[in-house]
Amino acid sequence: MKRVLLLCLISMAGFTAFSQTKPAKSEAAAAPKAPATPVTNTPVRAAKYEVLYGSKPLSKADQKELNEFVASCDASFGSRAEAVAFFAERAWEYVATARLDTATQRFNLISALDPNSVDAFWGLGVISFQRGDNDLAIRLLNKGLELDSTQSMMRVDYAIVKLDCYQKGQECGTLDEVETELKHALAQDPKNANAWMKRCQVAYYKENYELAWTYFHEARMADILQLDLNFGSLLAAKMPDPKGIFK
């Protein structure tokens, strides 16, 4: 489950609900809306369930627990890298099943084992998005990409968050920024159907419907299972499919 992120999974729900990549507002009145990004208010959570412990000093009890965890891992695994890989696998499973508090705790522990863990920044970025904090999600995903710029799936997640910013009228993302990230991701992995669908959405919001169809068919050829047929209907209402495949 490790690289199957909620960002990508939810984005497959479609543009009707605004798959996780969200468009803007002015142009978006009649356009796809995003599946509600979880979190409308900020609940009070224990520090261990906050991303990177809320970036605050740990209590003595939490610090003791963390030290014991690290010591236990050092005694049980052949290396820190092995421990990180083990706990990252579990953490991604929690993300995929929407157990975000537990996933957050696991990624925090991973960060303690390796402060430069790409998995930790990636996972916590996804969780922050799911909790409705786009600014934090962008910072975390950007850090992950700084550590490993070859992760095309993480770059698509980064683009998805920026597209959500655009749809919500927030300053953290523009269509041009989203397009740049998706283009980069596709240069790394031309068969990433999710990236093609997101690029299709960007073209839709720019009212370049012919280009949107081009990207839609690229997604179809990459992986037909990731096509958003509801979005295809919205696009067809703006401009018939030039290939005549979708009505």
Automatic annotation (TrEMBL):
Question: PROSITE patterns per the record?
Answer: TPR
Spell out the InterPro entries in the cross-references. Answer: TPR-like_helical_dom_sf, TPR_rpt
What keywords does the record list, in alphabetical order?
Answer: Signal, TPR repeat
What protein am I looking at?
A: Uncharacterized protein
Q: Which SUPFAM superfamilies does this one have?
A: TPR-like
Provide the leader sequence positions. 1-19
Start and stop residues of the TPR repeats: 118-151
- Species name for this entry? Aquirufa antheringensis
Q: Does the keyword section mention Signal?
A: yes
